[in-house]
Amino acid sequence: MEEDRSASYSMGVQKDRNKVERHMAATAERRVLFVASECAPFAKCGGLGDVVASLPKALRRSGVDVRVVIPLYASIDRAHYALVPEGTCRVRTGAGEVNECEIFRATADGGVPVWFVGHDRFFARNGIYDDHGQAYSDHAFRFGLLCMAAAQVCRDRKWIPDVMHVHDWPTAVLPAMLEAWRNNGRSDGLERTGSVLTIHNQAYQGYSHSSALPYLGLDESFYTPEGFEAYGQLNLLKGGIVFADEVTTVSPTYAKEIRQEPLGCGLSMYLRRRGETFGGILNGADYDVWNPEMDEHIPAAFGAHSLIGKGSCKRALQEEMGLQVDATVPLFGMVTRLAAQKGTGLMRTVLPWVLHEMQVQLAVLGSGDPADEDFFRRLAQEAPGRLAVNIGYSEALSHRIQAGADFFLMPSEFEPCGLSQMYALRYAALPLVHATGGLEDTVAQYNEAEGAGTGFKFYSFTAQAFHDVFGWAVSTWYDRPSHITRMRERAMEERFDWEASAQHYLEVYERVAAKRR
Ligand code: ADP
Question: pTM for this structure?
Answer without folding.
Answer: 0.89
